[in-house]
C-alpha cells in the first residue's frame, strides 16, 4: 500500500461564501501540482451562549478542522473575511487553541500563506492578512505571499495583494471572483504546494 500524499491544509471561515470560493481556487492551484493534495477545512461560528448548540458536522461545505489536520499538514493556508481589519473571531478561536502544537514546534519550517475577502475595496484586506500572518510567525512557519511575477497584481482593479490573495465581495457579499482574483488565488495555492514539496525534501541538520 502506497503512502498517503502530503497535503496542504486550506483552513478558512466563510459567512456568505466568498472566502469559501477563494479557498476552492487555492485548492485547485494546489492540486495542479503532482504529488500533493489539498484538504479543505472550516471552523464553526462562535456562539455567545454557554452551551454548544452547533452540529458537529456543518450542513454544507468543508468539515470542521481538527488539531490533527493542522498537525500533519505539509503547508497551511488561512482564509478569513475581515472583521474591522482583523481575522474573524471563529478562525482566531481555532488558532488560539493551537498552543500544544506551538509547544511542540510542530509547524516550524512549514510554508504558510493567508487570503481574505472584504465587502469594500479598502475594507482592511492588508491588515486582515497581517493579522493571520502573526500567529503563523509565532509557530515558526515560513510565510509565502504573492510575488509580483504574478502579473495580475499590477492590473487588478479589485482584490490582490503581495501579502496574499484577496477578493472584493461587494456590499451584499454577492460579487463573484473576477478573472484576476481567481488567477491570483490559483497561483497562491500552486506556489504554496511547490514550496511544501521543496521544503519536504530538504535535508535536516547534521548531528
UniProtKB/TrEMBL annotation:
UniProt keyword terms in alphabetical order: Flavoprotein, FMN
Keyword Magnesium: no
Family annotation (InterPro entries): Flavodoxin/NO_synth, Flavodoxin_CS, Flavoprotein-like_sf, Flavoprotein_WrbA-like, FMN_Rdtase-like_dom
GO molecular function: electron transfer activity; FMN binding; NAD(P)H dehydrogenase (quinone) activity
Residues in coiled coil: none
Cofactor dependency: FMN
Gene3D superfamilies, per the entry: 3.40.50.360
Cellular component, GO, one term: membrane
Flavodoxin-like domain ranges (all copies): 8-192
UniProt entry tagged with the keyword Ion transport: no
Source species, domain of life: Bacteria
Family: Belongs to the WrbA family.
Protein name: NAD(P)H:quinone oxidoreductase
Organismal lineage: Bacteria, Pseudomonadati, Pseudomonadota, Gammaproteobacteria, Oceanospirillales
